[in-house]
């Protein structure tokens, strides 16, 4: 029987993504790790979907000593949250840290956003977050002060209206959990990692981000993963109800 705590990391389908970096870092720090993914979304994106990436990530986590499980889940469906938690508890045990790095992001502005796109963004980025947070609060039975909720956000709204607006709603949901779950000692924080190189930026955009970032480089998935790892540690337990910018000083 493993004595490692269990983290649930959503949105970890791509080996170069933030979710995968978080899963690797937590596994190396002594966590068992469950991941979720949704291939149909990746298939619609420029990077496409590679079924081998999830299994490759699982193999990496296991080499780091972690027990792991992977759940394909459409987070736009209200029943997904319950299915995810039931699967993780069956395969690994009770979740101690819920780390939400999933998203739906299809660019459109105020004038071109459709009602269907707006609703889908809010279903995945806001409603699914609420349902996952609610399931975590209902099922958490760990020691006071041990529970962690962390979400990855963005303030990119202009030209990307439904994504940014739904991420803003997500922020409020997660920060509310810090107060509503105080009797359980669960901390809840949001991280804004800024522009992060996960394969989506053009060379021109990367050059602009480097120019406007005080530390003179683009963010890497590992940068966000290190902060998540700290927040999940006992040493990070005093940080609570915060929206943390970890973007190298992006101006």
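Sequence proposed for the structure above (251 residues):
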């Amino acid at each position: 029987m493993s004595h490692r705590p269990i983290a649930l990391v959503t949105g970890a389908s791509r080996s170069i993504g933030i979710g995968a970096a978080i899963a690797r870092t937590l596994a190396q720090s002594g966590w068992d790790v469950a991941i979720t993914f949704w291939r149909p979304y990746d298939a619609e994106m420029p990077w496409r979907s590679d079924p081998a990436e999830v299994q490759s990530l699982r193999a990496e986590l296991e080499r780091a000593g972690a027990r792991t499980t992977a759940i394909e889940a459409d987070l736009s469906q209200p029943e997904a949250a319950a299915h995810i938690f039931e699967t993780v508890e069956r395969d690994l045990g009770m979740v101690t840290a819920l780390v939400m790095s999933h998203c739906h992001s299809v660019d459109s502005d105020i004038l071109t956003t459709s009602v269907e796109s707006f609703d889908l963004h809010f279903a995945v980025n806001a409603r699914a977050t609420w349902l996952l947070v609610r399931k975590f609060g209902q099922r958490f039975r760990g020691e006071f002060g041990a529970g962690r909720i962390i979400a990855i956000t963005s303030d990119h709204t202009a030209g990307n209206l439904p994504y940014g607006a739904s991420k803003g709603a997500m922020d409020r949901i997660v920060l509310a959990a810090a107060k509503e779950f105080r009797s359980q000692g669960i901390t809840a924080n949001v991280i804004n990692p800024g522009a992060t190189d996960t394969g989506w930026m053009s060379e021109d955009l990367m050059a602009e981000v480097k120019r406007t970032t005080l530390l003179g480089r683009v963010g890497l998935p590992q940068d966000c993963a290190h902060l998540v790892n700290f927040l999940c540690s006992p040493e990070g337990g005093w940080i609570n109800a915060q929206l943390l910018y970890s973007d190298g000083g992006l101006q």
